[in-house]
Amino acid sequence: MMETVLPRAWQEEFERAAIGRREDTLDREKTIRFNLQERDKRDEREKVEKQEREDLETWTEAVLATTEQVAAFKVQLDSYDAKTVDALMDNREAMEVVRHKIDNMLEKAEVLPDGRRVFKTMDGKRVFDEHGQELKPEVIDASSIDDKKPKWETYKDSMDENTRLTQERQQLIEYQTKLDKARERLDKGDITNKEMDSIKADLSKTMPDAVREKLGLEKPKTEAKLETSAPALPDDMDNLMRKTGFAPATSAR
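-> structure tokens emitted (253 positions)
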């Protein structure tokens, strides 16, 4: 069989194409090696930066609060405790008033044979017992109840207020317990700035409205903002301290 001999021009074209393919392959390999090297460098930088952040966090967590910071916070706790006690006293007085109203209305209310006190509505169409259960006409007809007797709406408002005051009192007692625990923690000593900031943030976030009003402070705009803005919480607490006149004096440099 005769061997096919390509024209020289064709051979030169094939050789140039082969050389071009080899150069393209080498360029791709160089690009791949470069990208791998850059990725390794980036990974190493990120690893170093991560370690530096962790080291900084560890160092920050270990920094103890100064004596001046602890003293200022103790004064603030005393202020909060005093306002909480004031709020508890107001709460007790308000509960005495509302319970007296409730007792008075129960005394004047219509009484069923089974001993239940009942109240008809202001429109004179419905009847409820002292526990909030609506009664059917066959049990008692609304028209049979004297119009001078206490009305259901008035009784219910007083009961709702009593419930609110009871819940408020529980919140105040729980908050007072938090203040006591915070003071005990400070008395133990060796508290870090991070831990103290965490306590400040919690006391700021869970402060009952009754105490906040005593301090002349505005309510937080949203609960979500408090939870998602953790870094700003200590600043918020310091702001509370400034407003109540217990911020530590800035030292001269």
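Confidence is low (pLDDT under 50) at residues 223-253.
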